[in-house]
Amino acid sequence: MEPLERVSALIALMRELKAVLERENALLRSMGIEELRALQEEKLALADAYEIEIRNLRRSPEFVGGLEPEIRELLAETTRELQSTMRTNVTALAAARLVVERIARHLAEVLAGRPPSGAGGTAEVVPLALDRQV
Asked: Which residues have CB under 8 Å from 13's CB, separation 6+?
Protein backbone atom coordinates (compact mmCIF):
# COMPACT_ATOMS: atom_id res chain seq x y z
CA MET A 1 0.00 0.00 0.00
CA GLU A 2 1.32 3.45 -0.92
CA PRO A 3 2.08 5.84 2.00
CA LEU A 4 -0.71 8.24 1.07
CA GLU A 5 -3.21 5.38 0.80
CA ARG A 6 -2.06 3.99 4.13
CA VAL A 7 -2.45 7.35 5.89
CA SER A 8 -5.81 7.95 4.22
CA ALA A 9 -7.04 4.57 5.44
CA LEU A 10 -5.78 5.30 8.96
CA ILE A 11 -7.44 8.72 9.04
CA ALA A 12 -10.71 7.21 7.77
CA LEU A 13 -10.49 4.53 10.47
CA MET A 14 -9.85 7.15 13.16
CA ARG A 15 -12.78 9.26 12.00
CA GLU A 16 -15.08 6.25 11.97
CA LEU A 17 -13.99 5.26 15.48
CA LYS A 18 -14.51 8.83 16.65
CA ALA A 19 -18.04 8.83 15.19
CA VAL A 20 -18.86 5.55 16.96
CA LEU A 21 -17.53 6.92 20.27
CA GLU A 22 -19.61 10.07 19.84
CA ARG A 23 -22.71 7.94 19.19
CA GLU A 24 -21.89 5.90 22.28
CA ASN A 25 -21.50 9.06 24.36
CA ALA A 26 -24.90 10.29 23.21
CA LEU A 27 -26.47 6.90 23.96
CA LEU A 28 -24.90 6.88 27.42
CA ARG A 29 -26.43 10.29 28.14
CA SER A 30 -29.86 9.09 26.99
CA MET A 31 -29.40 5.59 28.49
CA GLY A 32 -30.16 3.93 25.14
CA ILE A 33 -29.20 0.51 26.47
CA GLU A 34 -30.35 -1.58 23.50
CA GLU A 35 -28.62 0.71 21.02
CA LEU A 36 -25.46 0.61 23.16
CA ARG A 37 -25.35 -3.17 22.93
CA ALA A 38 -25.60 -3.05 19.16
CA LEU A 39 -22.82 -0.47 18.96
CA GLN A 40 -20.33 -2.44 21.06
CA GLU A 41 -19.39 -4.91 18.33
CA GLU A 42 -18.64 -2.12 15.86
CA LYS A 43 -16.68 -0.19 18.49
CA LEU A 44 -14.60 -3.24 19.36
CA ALA A 45 -13.77 -4.01 15.72
CA LEU A 46 -12.74 -0.42 15.03
CA ALA A 47 -10.72 -0.16 18.22
CA ASP A 48 -8.87 -3.39 17.41
CA ALA A 49 -8.09 -2.19 13.88
CA TYR A 50 -6.92 1.17 15.23
CA GLU A 51 -4.66 -0.51 17.78
CA ILE A 52 -3.07 -2.64 15.05
CA GLU A 53 -2.45 0.38 12.82
CA ILE A 54 -0.92 2.41 15.65
CA ARG A 55 1.32 -0.51 16.58
CA ASN A 56 2.46 -0.73 12.96
CA LEU A 57 3.19 2.99 12.85
CA ARG A 58 5.26 2.78 16.02
CA ARG A 59 7.37 0.07 14.41
CA SER A 60 8.23 2.36 11.50
CA PRO A 61 8.50 5.97 12.74
CA GLU A 62 10.30 6.90 9.52
CA PHE A 63 6.99 6.38 7.73
CA VAL A 64 5.37 9.37 9.44
CA GLY A 65 8.56 11.39 9.11
CA GLY A 66 8.52 10.84 5.36
CA LEU A 67 5.03 12.25 4.89
CA GLU A 68 4.35 15.69 3.46
CA PRO A 69 3.97 18.30 6.24
CA GLU A 70 0.27 18.89 5.43
CA ILE A 71 -0.47 15.17 5.66
CA ARG A 72 1.47 14.86 8.92
CA GLU A 73 -0.52 17.78 10.37
CA LEU A 74 -3.81 16.24 9.24
CA LEU A 75 -2.82 12.96 10.88
CA ALA A 76 -1.81 14.78 14.08
CA GLU A 77 -5.06 16.78 14.18
CA THR A 78 -7.17 13.68 13.58
CA THR A 79 -5.26 11.92 16.36
CA ARG A 80 -5.90 14.81 18.78
CA GLU A 81 -9.61 14.82 17.94
CA LEU A 82 -9.87 11.06 18.47
CA GLN A 83 -8.00 11.24 21.77
CA SER A 84 -10.29 14.01 23.00
CA THR A 85 -13.35 11.95 22.09
CA MET A 86 -11.81 8.93 23.83
CA ARG A 87 -11.31 10.95 27.03
CA THR A 88 -14.93 12.10 26.89
CA ASN A 89 -16.01 8.49 26.32
CA VAL A 90 -14.04 7.22 29.32
CA THR A 91 -15.63 9.90 31.50
CA ALA A 92 -19.13 9.06 30.23
CA LEU A 93 -18.59 5.34 30.79
CA ALA A 94 -17.34 5.96 34.33
CA ALA A 95 -20.36 8.15 35.12
CA ALA A 96 -22.80 5.58 33.75
CA ARG A 97 -21.08 2.82 35.71
CA LEU A 98 -21.32 4.86 38.92
CA VAL A 99 -25.03 5.44 38.38
CA VAL A 100 -25.68 1.75 37.77
CA GLU A 101 -23.61 0.71 40.82
CA ARG A 102 -25.46 3.15 43.08
CA ILE A 103 -28.86 2.00 41.85
CA ALA A 104 -27.89 -1.67 42.26
CA ARG A 105 -26.55 -1.06 45.78
CA HIS A 106 -29.69 0.85 46.74
CA LEU A 107 -31.97 -1.87 45.38
CA ALA A 108 -29.97 -4.60 47.13
CA GLU A 109 -30.26 -2.79 50.45
CA VAL A 110 -33.98 -2.25 50.03
CA LEU A 111 -34.55 -5.89 49.03
CA ALA A 112 -32.55 -7.04 52.05
CA GLY A 113 -34.86 -5.00 54.29
CA ARG A 114 -32.18 -2.50 55.27
CA PRO A 115 -32.54 1.22 54.89
CA PRO A 116 -30.45 2.44 51.98
CA SER A 117 -26.98 3.80 52.76
CA GLY A 118 -27.14 7.31 54.05
CA ALA A 119 -30.76 6.96 55.12
CA GLY A 120 -31.58 7.23 58.76
CA GLY A 121 -34.53 5.79 60.62
CA THR A 122 -37.04 3.47 59.10
CA ALA A 123 -37.51 2.73 55.48
CA GLU A 124 -40.58 4.02 53.75
CA VAL A 125 -41.98 3.46 50.32
CA VAL A 126 -41.62 6.46 48.05
CA PRO A 127 -42.46 6.83 44.41
CA LEU A 128 -39.42 6.63 42.17
CA ALA A 129 -39.00 8.08 38.71
CA LEU A 130 -35.77 7.64 36.81
CA ASP A 131 -34.64 10.16 34.25
CA ARG A 132 -32.81 8.27 31.52
CA GLN A 133 -30.32 11.12 31.16
CA VAL A 134 -26.86 10.85 32.73
From this structure: 46, 49, 50, 53
